[in-house]
């Protein structure tokens, strides 16, 4: 049986629109925003907000609609469309893409463990209004990166007011400042309600903009994706309503979906999309290398045996192969999301491969283009810096490879760490 990799017509149309936005709006100001880190891509945000708002409105309407057996028979392509759009926008500029006004990872967490009422209450704000809004997720701490069980931020229930009191600090929060200071946004904060329970005591809490006790403490100065709003946030006796906890507050020592498994469900949805962003950066670098080599009379003869190619031609083929392998893994993980299948193994495979591939491809691009590849006159060195984050956030490459090994070999985290 033949397998078609042709994109559905609607998805291809949306990909082309994203590519046009990347070429016409994002790429022309890419260097300017890289040089001026704390400026924001105003034109991009203004153009993309109505699109994101309408998409969120349709998604919420689908949640409220009664089940339709006929529609359920049709193949879904929601995550596939997101994948190709993110790839195209990241080709334009990965940092600007990360400024996209939407629920982002906050939405992924709410979708993963929130109740229908919470999804409507917290996500409806992203489906209406003229002013852009952002969501963010806060998990990383000064003493807790990949080791999530070391999270120190606490949430204590006040029995008199039935409010949760949050205390702690989170760092490297994408769109945290945009969510809390510049819009009616939200941040999903992962905190522990029972430190003795380890990961089973972790819970996600929705903190809304304007909540007393929340301070955006500093903007981060970064190596790459410099247009992205990345900040640290402090919580000092921050009181939030009881119903702002996502899921069940009961602590089960064996763990629960609302705790660590809820965080993993969030990552299962977000990791393929991070991989898609890596693919966009890699494609930008690869295309620029091929165009530059062509201008100097060097093309890639795909019909020639490998041993007859020059070293440069072989390098370009290897770059293409790495990106194609990452693309296929990402496509698989994304398709499983659309089918409602568990994809924790495939999501980590896609994220690990894409992070490694884009790092190698952009480094090789700088190498092949020599001094000009290293020069700030071209964007190649910027793409190399932007690429590094894809192997770090949403779980480092090492953590994702560890997850892959556990899933394949059937080991628990205590047996293989």
- Report how far the terminal alpha carbons are from each other: 41 Å
Strand content: 5-15%
Q: Biggest β-sheet: count, sense, barrel?
A: 4 strands, antiparallel
Tell me the helix content: 40-55%
| Low confidence ranges | none
Q: Could you characterize what this model shows?
A:
The protein has 417 residues and is of the alpha+beta class. It folds into 3 domains: 9-127, Butyryl-Coa Dehydrogenase, subunit A, domain 1, CATH 1.10.540.10; 135-244, Butyryl-CoA Dehydrogenase, subunit A, domain 2; 260-409, Butyryl-CoA Dehydrogenase, subunit A, domain 3. The chain is 51% helix and 13% strand. It contains 14 helices and 7 strands. A 4-stranded antiparallel β-sheet has the order 2-3-7-6. Strands 1-4-5 form a 3-stranded mixed β-sheet. Strand 2 and strand 3 (163-174) form a beta hairpin. Helix 9 (260-295) packs antiparallel against helix 10 (311-338), helix 9 runs antiparallel to helix 13 and helix 11 (344-368) packs antiparallel against helix 13 (380-388). The longest helix is centred in the middle third of the chain and has 36 residues, at 260-295. The protein is globular and about 75 Å long. The mean pLDDT is 91.
């Amino acid at each position: 049986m033949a397998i078609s990799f042709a994109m559905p017509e609607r998805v291809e149309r949306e990909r082309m629109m994203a590519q046009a936005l990347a070429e016409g709006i994002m790429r022309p100001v890419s260097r300017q925003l890289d040089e001026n880190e704390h400026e924001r891509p105003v034109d991009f945000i203004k153009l993309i907000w109505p699109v994101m708002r309408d998409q969120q409105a349709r998604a919420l309407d689908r949640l409220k609609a009664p089940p339709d057996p006929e529609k359920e028979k049709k193949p879904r392509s929601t995550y596939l469309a997101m994948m190709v759009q993110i790839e195209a926008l990241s080709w334009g500029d990965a940092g600007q893409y990360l400024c996209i006004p939407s629920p982002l990872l906050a939405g992924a967490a709410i979708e993963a463990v929130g109740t229908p009422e919470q999804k409507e209450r917290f996500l409806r704000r992203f489906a209406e209004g003229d002013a852009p809004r952002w969501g963010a997720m806060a998990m990383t701490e000064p003493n807790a990166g990949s080791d999530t069980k070391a999270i120190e931020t606490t949430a204590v229930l006040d029995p008199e007011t039935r409010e949760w009191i949050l205390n702690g600090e989170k760092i490297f929060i994408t769109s945290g400042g945009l969510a809390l200071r510049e819009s009616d946004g939200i941040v999903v904060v992962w905190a522990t309600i029972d430190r003795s329970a380890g990961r089973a005591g972790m819970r996600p809490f929705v903190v809304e903009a304007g909540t007393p006790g929340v301070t955006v403490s500093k903007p981060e100065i970064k190596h790459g994706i410099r247009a992205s709003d990345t900040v640290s946030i402090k919580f000092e006796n921050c009181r939030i309503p009881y119903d702002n906890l996502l899921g069940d507050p009961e602590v089960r020592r064996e763990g629960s979906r609302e705790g660590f498994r809820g965080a993993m469900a969030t990552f299962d949805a977000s990791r393929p999309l991070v991989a898609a962003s890596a693919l966009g950066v890699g494609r930008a670098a690869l295309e620029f290398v091929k165009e530059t080599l062509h201008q100097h009379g060097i093309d890639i003869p795909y019909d020639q045996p490998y041993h007859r190619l020059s070293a440069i031609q072989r390098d370009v083929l290897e770059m293409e192969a790495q990106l194609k392998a990452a693309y296929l893994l990402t496509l698989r993980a994304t398709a499983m999301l659309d089918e409602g299948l568990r994809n924790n193994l495939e999501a980590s495979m896609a994220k690990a491969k894409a992070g490694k591939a884009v790092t190698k491809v952009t480094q090789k691009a700088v190498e092949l283009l020599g001094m000009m590849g290293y020069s700030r006159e071209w964007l190649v060195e910027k793409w190399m810096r932007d690429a590094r984050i894809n192997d770090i956030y949403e779980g480092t490459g090492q953590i994702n490879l560890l997850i892959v090994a556990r899933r394949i070999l059937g080991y628990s985290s205590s047996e293989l760490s």
